[in-house]
Amino acid sequence: MANETINGLRVTVTIKGSVSGTEGTRQDVDITYDRTFTDGTGTNQVGAMFYDATRAIAQAGEDMDLTGSSSYTDFKGIALDLNSVAVFYLENLDTDTGDSVTITRPAAAGMTGMQAASDVTTVQPGGLYLWIAPIDKAVVTGTTADLVNLAATDASGSNVKILIAGDNT
Fold this sequence. Notes:
Blueprint: E1 9-20, E2 26-39, E3 45-46, E4 48-57, E5 62-65, E6 67-73, E7 79-92, E8 101-104, E9 109-110, E10 120-123, E11 128-132, E12 138-139, E13 145-152, E14 158-168
Parallel strand pairs: 2-3, 9-13
Antiparallel strand pairs: 1-2, 4-14, 5-13, 6-7, 7-11, 7-12, 7-14, 8-10, 8-13
């Protein structure tokens, strides 16, 4: 993913709501997380991005190789080649009961920093997983710490929207 410039990547999450008690008490929630990344390799910076709006994930799963994988390419067809990850976004586009997607750090050659070895995160139907590290990014090291496994829990597979942004090598 060379010869590209990240022209700003902004992540905004807003949670609003309120709860009222029967005796008239009320609790309001108004939380906003807003982070903008610029081009580069430092704090609040990323130099490469992979985005797929409708990626099919099979039940057998797939190891996402974050360093030089030909199946994960940018908009120009250049293979993803990261040395760190600052943003990992996965939205499960399926809405049928049981159509979950798992994110796993393989025990061997798994990317460090986002999950512990062999940890599994399940993204339920219609759900999303968002991991952001603008300062101490997840470390990616070719052939030894560069894999993230995605798998569907249903035999028919699942569809996801995925974005990964980080520093390129």
